[in-house]
Amino acid sequence: MDGDKTVTATFAHGACAISGTVTVSGTGLAGVTMTGLPGDPVTDASGFYTAAVDYGSTVTVTPTHSYYTFEPSSQTYTNVAADITGQNYGRDPHCHAAAPGPDRSL
After folding, report:
1. Which of 22, 50, 66, 81 is 20 to 30 A from residue 95's alpha carbon, by CA?
2. Tens-digit pLDDT profile for residues 77-104
3. What does the angle CA 61 – CA 35 – CA 74 come to, to the nearest 5 degrees?
4. pLDDT confidence of 11, banded at 50, 70, 90?
5. Predicted pLDDT at 92
């Protein structure tokens, strides 16, 4: 190998995970859509969700459900540079949509 050599390298950061649990009165709630995360993941039977976001990204996550609102109502994650766990949401006991009732039309 004669002379100087130049090596150029590009390093890519991997994805980071944002995860947590959605609960109602301390019990995990299935079927909550975590709007704003890639793919809009839905909570499992235990209320758990997880999603991979691009390194350095900014996302605003809003849990959405047909019958409930949650606290916090949304959360923004700025310049995500590592996994973020324990991002939990709970049902706000004072604000929820009315559950559907029987059709009482004549």
Report:
1. 50
2. 999 999 999 999 998 555 555 554 444 4
3. 30
4. low
5. 59
pLDDT at 12: 62
Q: Which residue has the tokens 């991002």?
A: 87
- Identify the structural domains of the chain with CATH numbers, from first to last: 16-94 (2.60.40.1120)
Secondary structure (3-state) at 33: strand
Distance CA 88, CA 37 (A): 14
Range 38-44 average pLDDT = 97
How far is residue 106's CA from residue 102's CA, in Å, rounded to a whole number?
12
Q: What is the value of pTM for the model shown?
A: 0.76
Between CA 76 and CA 79 the distance in angstroms is 10
Pairing of the two strands 16-24 and 89-96: parallel
3-state secondary structure of 88: coil
80 in Cβ contact with 16 (< 8 Å): yes
Q: CA 73, CA 80: separation in Å to the nearest integer?
A: 20
